C-alpha cells in the first residue's frame, strides 16, 4: 500500500510541473503527498442501506488516497445507521434526528470533516460509482488549477455508460436546458457555472470563505448556489472530462416524478431571489408560465402526480415557501394516478 501511495503521488507531478503552474512545481514530494492524497468523503444515507453499503465497500478497496469518511444518516428507517456503523467501524456515522434534505444533511458531514482536517472534500452520492484513479485525477487537477475551488467528473448513467447525464451545468434560471451533455473540451478541464452534487471535490477553503450549502433549498440547486457564491471569491467550478463517475438514477426513479421535480421547479425561484434581483420579476413570471404549461401538458398525458408536483413547486416558489416540504408534496400526490412519492 505504501508503494501504491508513492506511485500515486508521482503520478500527479505532471499537473504540478506544468509550465503554467511554475510556482506550484516547486512543491516537494511531501507537499504533493499532503495536499493531493488526503481526502474527506461525505456521504448521505436516507433509507438506502444497500446503496450505502455498496458505496462504502468500494471505498474500502481504495489503497492510494488517504480517506476519512463521514456518513450522515438523514433520519432513515430504524436500524440503518447502526447497521452501517457496525459493518464499517473505520468511518464516522453522524445521525440526524430529522430529514434535513441533501443540503442540511450534507452540511452535517461537511462541518465534521472540516473540524477533522483541511483536506479537500468529496461529496459523493451513495448510488454513484467512481474509481479511485478518477478521484486521483480530480485531485491532481484541482491541486494544479489555482483558480479552481470545485472539480467534478463527467457523470454517466450507470445503466447506460455511454449516456452522459452531466458534463457540467449553466445558470439554471437563464437556460431552459441548463445541463451540459457533452464535454466542452475532451482532453482538458474546463470551467462551468455549476456541477452536480452527486460527485464533486471541493477545497476546504471554499467552505471556510463562503459558508456551507444553503439549507433553504433542501434538495436540488444547492450546488449551483454554492458555485455562484464561490466564483466572486476566486473559486471557479471545473469539469475534468478525463474523470468519470456513474450514477444509478434508476434506483431513485420513483422519487423523480414527484419530489425531485417539485424541488427543481421551486428552487429556481429561490435562486432568482438570491442572485437576480433586478431581473427577478421577469424571470419569475417566465418560469411560472413555463411550469404551469408543463403541468397542463402532463395532466393531459395522464401524469397527474408529476403535474401536481410542478404546480406546487411554482406556487411555493412564488410564495417564498422554501425548506423541506416532503410531507406536503407526498400527500398532494399520493392518490393521483402516477403517484410515486417516497417513504417518510
Structure description:
The protein has 2 domains: 2-247, Spore Coat Polysaccharide Biosynthesis Protein SpsA, Chain A (Alpha-Beta Complex), CATH 3.90.550; 252-333, no CATH class. It is built from 14 helices and 10 strands. Helix 5 (49-60) links the parallel strand 1 (38-45) and strand 2 (66-74). Mean pLDDT is 89; it is low at 13-36 and 339-344. With 344 residues, the chain is an alpha/beta fold. Helix 1 packs across helix 4 (29-36), helix 11 runs antiparallel to helix 12 (280-300) and helix 12 (280-300) packs antiparallel against helix 13 (304-319). It has helices at 2-11, 13-16, 22-25, 29-36, 49-60, 80-87, 101-116, 132-144, 204-210, 222-230, 253-275, 280-300, 304-319, 326-333; strands spanning 38-45, 66-74, 92-96, 121-125, 128-129, 148-157, 160-166, 190-192, 199-202, 236-247. Strands 1, 2, 3, 4, 5, 6, 7, 8, 9 and 10 form a 10-stranded mixed β-sheet that branches. The chain is globular.
Topology:
Blueprint: H1 2-11, H2 13-16, H3 22-25, H4 29-36, E1 38-45, H5 49-60, E2 66-74, H6 80-87, E3 92-96, H7 101-116, E4 121-125, E5 128-129, H8 132-144, E6 148-157, E7 160-166, E8 190-192, E9 199-202, H9 204-210, H10 222-230, E10 236-247, H11 253-275, H12 280-300, H13 304-319, H14 326-333
Parallel strand pairs: 1-2, 1-4, 2-3, 6-10
Antiparallel strand pairs: 4-9, 5-10, 6-7, 6-9, 8-10
Helix pairs in contact: 1-4, 11-12, 11-13, 12-13
Amino acid at each position: 500500500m505504501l508503494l501504491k501511495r508513492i506511485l500515486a503521488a508521482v503520478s500527479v507531478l505532471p499537473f504540478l510541473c506544468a509550465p503554467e503552474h511554475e510556482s506550484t512545481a516547486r512543491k516537494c514530494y511531501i507537499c504533493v503527498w499532503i495536499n493531493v492524497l488526503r481526502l474527506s468523503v461525505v456521504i448521505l444515507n436516507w433509507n438506502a442501506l444497500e446503496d450505502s453499503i455498496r458505496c462504502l465497500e468500494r471505498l474500502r478497496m481504495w489503497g492510494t488516497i488517504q480517506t476519512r469518511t463521514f456518513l450522515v444518516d438523514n433520519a432513515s428507517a430504524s436500524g440503518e445507521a447502526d447497521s452501517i456503523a457496525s459493518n464499517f467501524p473505520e468511518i464516522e456515522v453522524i445521525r440526524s434526528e430529522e430529514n434535513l434534505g441533501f443540503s442540511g444533511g450534507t452540511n452535517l458531514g461537511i462541518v465534521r470533516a472540516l473540524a477533522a482536517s483541511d483536506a479537500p472534500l468529496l461529496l459523493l452520492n451513495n448510488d454513484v460509482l467512481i474509481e479511485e484513479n478518477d478521484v486521483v485525477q480530480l485531485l491532481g487537477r484541482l491541486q494544479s488549477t489555482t483558480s479552481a475551488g470545485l472539480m467534478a467528473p463527467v457523470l454517466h448513467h450507470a445503466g447506460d455508460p455511454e449516456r452522459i447525464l452531466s458534463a457540467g451545468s449553466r445558470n439554471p434560471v437563464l437556460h431552459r436546458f441548463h445541463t451540459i451533455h457533452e464535454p466542452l473540451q475532451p482532453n482538458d478541464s474546463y470551467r462551468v457555472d455549476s456541477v452536480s452534487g452527486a460527485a464533486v471535490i471541493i477545497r476546504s477553503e471554499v467552505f471556510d470563505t463562503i459558508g456551507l450549502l444553503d439549507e433553504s433549498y433542501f434538495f436540488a440547486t444547492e450546488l449551483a448556489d454554492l458555485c455562484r457564491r464561490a466564483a466572486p471569491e476566486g473559486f471557479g467550478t471545473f469539469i475534468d472530462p478525463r474523470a468519470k463517475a456513474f450514477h444509478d438514477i434508476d434506483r431513485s426513479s420513483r422519487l423523480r416524478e414527484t419530489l425531485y421535480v417539485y424541488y427543481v421547479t421551486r428552487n429556481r425561484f429561490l435562486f432568482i431571489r438570491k442572485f437576480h434581483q433586478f431581473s427577478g420579476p421577469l424571470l419569475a413570471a417566465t418560469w411560472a408560465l413555463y411550469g404551469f404549461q408543463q403541468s397542463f401538458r402532463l395532466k393531459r398525458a395522464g401524469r397527474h402526480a408529476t403535474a401536481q408536483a410542478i404546480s406546487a413547486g411554482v406556487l411555493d416558489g412564488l410564495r417564498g415557501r422554501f425548506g423541506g416540504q416532503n410531507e406536503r408534496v407526498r400527500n398532494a400526490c399520493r392518490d393521483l394516478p402516477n403517484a410515486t412519492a417516497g417513504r417518510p
